[in-house]
Design goal:
single chain; two-stranded antiparallel ribbon; 10 strands
């Protein structure tokens, strides 16, 4: 097979061109500069009474697309409508609720007739609480959560563990009217903050599950999608979903991923937070054109990718780079190449090799410096191999080495998964204890 036969469409050509020039940071920077020309305001977010309602001071909702609460003393919530008419999609992107905005979060879901929540983060990441626990921890009325400030209550009816994500069926009650509504939560539990899944395969399987539920269709209220800030992982999910819809309706030749991202950024600031997330979107779109086909089956590769992802996520997490766009200079460490995939063949043979960002993340800088670099020099970040088309023998040995490494990862998966589960149980127990102590303190004050 010749090299040119791999270039089946312009998106793959564009991906390979950016990869060969190691220009992901430059492309991402250009998108950021183009986004700054929109000049949209966020005056409501800057009002003194609303500032405490923002999880991060550099992530604010635009005024022209913000969600406005109706049955509340304050109509403000850090959330935006993201409407993509070309893909016939409408989402609500929001931050992970704070302890004192959980009621606002559920009120938004009730008022918007939302049938699904897509949660793309864990409660605790990098030893920090990134989202308040906003759903009951047990099933039934005994564990019901009631929010008197908005006159709503929620119960957990059922829960399903799907290895790297969970689904929960919740019942949301309006205490004023006595009506109730079922809400499904899709919780992706293995996507690192400021990072990407190790492979697009498992992510696409998650997206397929969400799509098959019908919650992304415009028949009901818009789905609520959140991570911690509601721009990085949330933006990545929406961009891949929209691009795949456009491909399915118009063909890959009519898709421009960068222009689609710019259109999304007209609705909520800062969507896609790192060059690596942008790169992952290209990978997922290219791979998804085949893997979202109902007749496509490759369960073995999917299983392996899930195992690797779980192993990666158990590693000690690094501190994050700035929450807002980091655009001024390119990262010192080259971005990793695309994982091997059937739809692209062995494209990694023509790309510089490096470890995944989840394995050796760049050294971060302050979250508040919104225009600083997102990575810095690291002596341990030098690539260990450089494979070109001319060194076929080296490429074969590299693939063999990767196969052995993958086998080692799979063999350690169960042990690491058990350790991760114990860690989560300890964290959950701590949250329960803190909550209990807080309630006891309130009772004493009364």
């Amino acid at each position: 097979m010749s090299q040119n036969s791999l270039y089946t469409n312009k998106v793959e050509e564009e991906y390979l061109d950016i990869l060969s020039r190691n220009a992901w940071a430059l492309v991402y920077q250009k998108i950021g500069i183009d986004s700054q020309q929109f000049r949209h305001s966020w005056n409501e977010a800057k009002k003194p009474q609303n500032k405490p309602l923002n999880r991060y001071r550099d992530v604010n909702p635009f005024d022209h697309t913000r969600v406005v609460l109706k049955r509340c003393e304050r109509d403000y919530i850090n959330a935006n409508y993201v409407t993509m008419e070309r893909a016939n999609r409408r989402y609500i992107l929001t931050q992970g609720p704070l302890a004192f905005t959980v009621g606002h979060f559920w009120l938004m879901i009730w008022e918007q007739n939302t049938k699904a929540i897509l949660m793309l983060n864990k409660i605790i990441e990098k030893n920090e609480i990134k989202c308040h626990w906003y759903w009951p921890q047990g099933t039934g009325e005994a564990h019901r959560m009631t929010f008197n400030d908005v006159k709503l209550a929620v119960e957990l009816e059922s829960e399903e563990d799907c290895c790297y994500y969970s689904t929960r069926t919740l019942r949301l009650y309006d205490l004023e009217s006595g009506k109730s509504r079922e809400v499904t939560q899709f919780h992706y539990t293995t996507w690192p903050d400021f990072g990407v899944p190790t492979s697009p395969i498992a992510f696409l399987q998650f997206l397929k599950r969400v799509r098959e539920s019908g919650v992304l269709d415009p028949t009901d209220g818009p789905p609520v999608i959140h991570c911690s800030a509601g721009i990085g992982r949330s933006g990545t999910f929406c961009l891949v979903d929209c691009c795949l819809v456009i491909v399915e309706r118009e063909g890959m030749e009519n898709l421009d991923i960068q222009e689609t991202l710019l259109e999304m950024r007209r609705h909520r600031m800062g969507l896609i937070q790192t060059p690596d997330q942008l790169r992952f979107c290209y990978q997922a779109v290219i791979e998804g054109t085949k893997r979202l086909d109902p007749e496509f089956k490759d369960e073995d590769e999917l299983e392996d990718s899930i195992y690797v992802m779980i192993g990666e996520e158990d590693a000690p997490p690094p501190p994050p780079p700035p929450r807002a766009e980091s655009l001024n200079r390119a990262p010192a460490r080259p971005l990793p190449a695309i994982p091997a995939s059937e739809s692209l063949g062995n494209l990694n043979l023509s790309a510089p090799q490096d470890s995944s960002s989840d394995e050796s993340p760049p050294t971060p800088v302050s979250r508040d410096d919104s225009l600083s670099a997102s990575s810095a020099d690291d002596e341990d970040d030098e690539p260990t191999a450089s494979v070109t088309e001319s060194t076929v023998g080296e490429g074969t040995e590299l693939r063999r080495r990767r196969t052995r490494e993958l086998a080692d990862r799979v063999s350690n998966m169960k042990r690491k998964a058990r350790e991760a589960e114990r860690w989560h149980q300890l964290k959950r127990a701590k949250l329960d204890n803190d909550k209990k102590e807080h309630c006891e303190e309130k009772e004493e004050l009364r």
